[in-house]
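job 3f2a | input accepted
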Amino acid sequence: ATFGAGVIEGYGLTECSPVVAVNRNFEMRRLGTVGPILEGYDWKLMSRDGEEDHTKEGEGVLWVKGPSVTSGYFRDPEKTAERFKDGWFDTGDYVRMEDGCVHILDRVTDIIIVGVFNVYPQEVEAILNAHPAVQQAAVIGIPHPVNGEVPKAFVQLKEGQQITSQELIKFCKQSLAHFKVPRTMEFVGELPLSPTGKILRRVLRERK
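job 3f2a | predicted structure (208 res):
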């Protein structure tokens, strides 16, 4: 908005050189998606345990194959064996395919399993970040004796703002199913970020 320019979302990975999907233009874009898979790629959705395989609409781990996909990692046969199989590359992203477009739900390693329900941290973080007192939030799963895991939120407040955990939890309950609402909140001065500005959830999991 500052520069008067619109944004068209796309999706790519270094291993794919890098673009995999993109909204074609403003007229054809699907808001909330990264657009359709580009021509030249084959794709399939796998279950998290790697046993299901389908190329129809639904949810699953996105695997891709194509001429721009690298054949493996340099001098790292173990990681190559983990992510590549018969020419297919495991993106590590859990997605929903709908009307030919890709919805990025979350990284597979970040999904929180509450009982039998999937909780996508990005969805919960989006609600928390919408609160006027919140600068940035990150959500991880923590162990729970009954549900296996439950969400925990790390919250960085805007300068000069004050709010309680219970107030934020109440705010989340207005928009989220009960199993998605963080059970606990921890206020932090800042969140651990990568050089590119991504939240390092693994660091938060180590400190929980």
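job 3f2a | The longest helix spans residues 121-129.
job 3f2a | closed
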